[in-house]
Design brief:
Length: about 80
């Protein structure tokens, strides 16, 4: 349980880094970018545990969380960006 709490804290930082790596206008702004970073860290933790890269009490590594956040941010931009005409 503590691993997911730590993933949320790291996700905040990761969201900021993902925003710096993928500059541009996000449809949701800064807050949505940070929330997507948190989601990326949580998803990276969950997926890593499901695949067997991490034990049940481990969290995603920092680089894994950044990659997860960038992927989620990219998908978010594609989905939301296409809805705005």
């Amino acid at each position: 349980m503590f691993a997911f709490l730590w993933a949320i804290i790291i996700g905040f930082v990761v969201g900021l880094i993902a925003k710096a790596i993928m500059p541009g206008r996000d449809p949701g702004g800064f807050i949505v970018t940070v929330l997507l970073g948190i989601g990326g860290a949580v998803v990276a933790t969950w997926l890593g545990q499901a695949v067997g890269w991490y034990q049940a009490d481990q969290r995603a590594g920092f680089i894994g969380a950044v990659v997860g956040a960038i992927i989620i941010l990219g998908v978010y931009r594609l989905v939301i960006g296409n809805r705005r005409v």
